[in-house]
Amino acid sequence: MPSLRGQAFTRTDLLKRIGRLEQLAGVRAVTLADGSERGVRVLEFRTGTGFAFDVIVDRAFDIGRCEFAGMALAWQSPVGFSGPWYYEPGGLGFMRSFGGGLLTTCGLDHALFMARDTAEQYHYPPKPYEDYGLHGRVSNRPAKLIGYGERWDGDECVLWATGEVVQASVFGEQLLLRRSIESRVGESRLRIRDEVENIGHSLTPHMLLYHVNLGWPVVDEGAELAVPATRVSVRGTDQVEGYRRMHGPRRNFVEQAFEHELAGEADGSVPVAVVNRELQLGAYEVFNHRQLPHHFLWRMLGEGTYVVGIEPCTNRIEGRLDARVRAELIELEPGERRGYDLELGALVGPEEIDAFAARVTRMVSSARSSERP
């Protein structure tokens, strides 16, 4: 049952105290009205705890603004949540429409840096290869809104939304992302269930990366990364020592990327967070290592672009061509589906932060013990 202001309520007791659920929680559909965001559909979620987030319907059902008690958990870029009609597909064109937010989905047939790869699977001679831009196309595809609202499961109230995103081309990929998002009244977290299906008739490559973007004030001087990493490798910098501790914004900072080898729990769950103990607030993700076996940290601690990305992925950081060489590039048969689960939320207060940190520490200790002869 919902716990609000430290008190648990049955459905009956809660509804005696409010005129309608929207007084404290709910899902509201709005349309943005100005600038490059004009016409973009958004679903605003509030869970009653101070946890609130937006689902950007017209940007792959991704998560935009996210906050707790008025304090931002997610970074937002100067681009804003522009409509998909402003997308520039080639090269680094992704950056022209990368609004940030709590979640930007990268894929569905390509993620990570640019690559040229064969297109022979589509049997169209004028197209012998495909040029893939940074992080693929899906985050710039509008969703079909299947439904949204609130439902009661006994004394639990679930806020929900479902959408479908098609990424398709004639003589190219035909992939469907079905996304369901749920958040319970009285909790400060959301759960995403994704299913990617090849709805075409050709064998089709598939890559997926969840670009989870955390920002100030959670990311600030002294904030720390909690991750059950057993090994770490680095790209773009020689600095490894102390990389889990954040510093304030620096002028002319050059981005850094770290790849983790991770310990997982018995069911495959992997918890990762950035916590700010001075603020007593953190933001976290939990994903399944069996679904997403690779994980990256994006440290971009510059002025304005002051963001930490915690990013589970289907592939290694070297990207598409490396995956093909290693025989690790996923290829979906016609009608084949793959499922992914992701939980995102806030850690509020020392007890929640300490419990999460202890969970991570136990996982690393257990993994290292199992490696000993």
Structural class: mainly beta
The appropriate CATH architecture is Distorted Sandwich
Strand content: 35-45%
Q: Radius of gyration, Cα only, in angstroms? A: 21 Å
| Overall tally of structural domains | 1
Number of strands: 24
Poorly predicted regions: none
Strand count, sense and barrel status of the largest sheet are:
8 strands, antiparallel
Nearest-integer average pLDDT = 95
Q: Give the overall shape.
A: globular
> Which strand order spans the largest sheet, edge to edge or round the barrel?
11-12-13-14-24-20-19-16
Q: Please bin the fraction of helical residues.
A: under 10%
Helix run count: 3
Report the span from N to C terminus: 47 Å
Q: What do we call the CATH topology?
A: Beta-galactosidase, Chain A, domain 5
Topology as a string of helices (H) and strands (E): EEHEEEEEEEEEEEEEEEEEEEEHEEH
The CATH class: Mainly Beta
How would you describe this structure to a colleague?
With 373 residues, the chain is mainly beta. It has a single domain (3-371), classed as Beta-galactosidase, Chain A, domain 5, CATH 2.70.98.10. It has three helices and 24 strands. The strands form five sheets. Strands 11-12-13-14-24-20-19-16 form an eight-stranded antiparallel sheet. Strands 8, 15, 17, 18, 21, 22 and 23 form a seven-stranded antiparallel sheet that branches. Strand 11 (144-153) and strand 12 (156-168) form a beta hairpin. The longest helix is centred in the last third of the chain and has 23 residues, at 349-371. The N and C termini lie far apart (47 Å).
